[in-house]
Amino acid sequence: MFKKLARSMMVSWRKEPTRYDIEALQANISRVGLVIRVRWILVAVLALYSVLATAVYTMETPLVDVVSNMTVPAAAMVFVLMYNTYYQLTYRHLGNIAILNHAQLFFDALVVTVLVYYSGGVHSWFWAMYSLFILEAAFILPRRWHAYWLAGVSAFMIGVVLWGEYFQWIPHRHIPYTSESLYRNLTFVTVRYMWQLAVLIGTATVSTLMTSRIRMREEELEASSIIDDKTGLYDRAYFHRMLASELLRAERDARRVSLILVDLDGFARVNTILGYARGDQLLRMIAQKLHETVYNPEGRGSEMNVVCRYGGEEFAILVAENDRGSDSGPTVDDAFTLAEAVRLAVECVRLDDAGVTASLGVVSFPDDGMNAEELLSMADEALARALSAGGNLVISTRKG
Q1: 3-class DSSP state for residue 387?
Q2: Which of 96, 154, 212, 234 has a CA-to-CA distance to 177 between 20 and 30 Å?
Q3: Cβ atoms within 10 Å of 68's Cβ, excluding its own
Q4: What is the chain's alpha carbon radius of gyration, rounded to the nearest angstrom?
Q5: Please, are residues 248 and 301 in contact by the beta-carbon 8 Å criterion?
Q6: Helix-helix angle 22-57:63-94, to 10 degrees
Q7: Where are the domains of the chain?
Q8: Range 227-239 burial, b when 16+ CB lie within 10 A, else e
Q9: What are residue 330's phi and psi, to 5 degrees?
Q10: Rounded alpha-carbon distances, angstroms, from residue 298 to 115, 209, 301
Q11: Residue 218: helix, strand or coil by DSSP?
Q12: pLDDT at position 316, please?
């Protein structure tokens, strides 16, 4: 239970993000940094506004009354300065902790609520700032409903002020140039609150739609740079990057990583018989089957593993996790079982009664090599042994 709770607090569910969730982490850190900078601008604007508003109010209101009403809001602004400074200094190191993003937005809403209360409650125009922070939530939080969560929190907080003053649970804060009777007028308070709810929910809806489209476009651009056009799998360059990343994690955490090279037996003959267009179609069908097998837990796969087109009719599979979530990583038996599932899956793919088989070589870190170059060399050697034995075979350096 503790592990599940801890993982829910992280942008990535693992201790250190690797592979395809590392881009999400980096994007999150970048977005949080932008929001922090925007908050500094807002603080500066509020500070300037406070000075000018105080100067204007003191033209007809005693300075002591204005200052007494601004003491708590000033303390709230100091609180903003403190936690924004903290985030400014730590967000690059703590960007993986998703709950900190929620916390800073909650603090933002809390500070706005203080400003609303001390600027007249039902008369205050500061409530519009909730909308700005809902936009922040849509921008930096990973789920669409998170923006609605902040809208709900904001609606609850401003409701505490409006209805608390109406039912006299909290004292009304008087400010100059307002009608004192309105905060006790049921019709005015109800209509005012309904309008505020509409604006907050509308802001959450519009902001999630806009940011969803932006993120979709980002994902499309990201995918176009790492996805093989012909098969839809990851490309070779991405595989090498993820292999290096996983080896670093494995060395640091003393865990295993396995590598599987897959070569399709006699695929050139299929191209000769069916033509290259149909051969490409068969290749895509095999790639889809590989994807389904590698990411299917029943096939001893895991969504955290990587399958890519390594070149021509050759594929590579990085086995970084097993279906049991073991801290020590996948065993040699896990990788061999997955390789055997892949071999059987390829054998089942048919197009116009034509198909191919697969030869596979399986190696493991640290037993077969201490770096990517050594592992790939050993995997090539194991694959060559499978091919020389007639193909349609899995060869592992540890299982013969």
Answers
A1: helix
A2: 154
A3: 10
A4: 30
A5: no
A6: 170
A7: 2-226, 236-396
A8: bbeebebbbeebb
A9: -70, 140
A10: 55, 36, 7
A11: helix
A12: 93
236-396 classified as CATH 3.30.70.270? yes
Q: What's the pLDDT tens digit per position in 274-309?
A: 788 888 898 999 999 998 888 765 544 455 688 998
Residue 256 confidence (pLDDT): 86
Residue 164 pLDDT exceeds 90: yes
- Cis before 17? omega within 30: no
How many angstroms separate the CA atoms of 52 and 35, rounded?
A: 26
Task: Give the tokens for residue 274.
Answer: 């069916």
β-partners of residue 351 are 354
- Look at residue 294 in the predicted model and tell me its pLDDT: 86
Per DSSP, the residues of 281-346 read HHHHHHHHHHHHHHT-GGGT--TT-EEEEEETTEEEEEE---TT--TT---HHHHHHHHHHHHHHH
pLDDT for position 97: 62
For residue 92, which amino acid is it? R
Instruction: Give backbone dihedrals phi and psi of 97, rounded to 5 degrees, phi first.
Output: -95, 100
Contact 372, 247 (CB under 8 A): yes
At residue 143, the 3 state secondary structure works out as coil
| Alpha-carbon span 29 to 27, nearest angstrom | 5
Q: Give the pLDDT confidence of 340-364 residue by residue, as tens digits.
A: 999 999 988 888 778 889 999 999 9
Gap between the Cα atoms of 184 and 122, Å rounded: 9
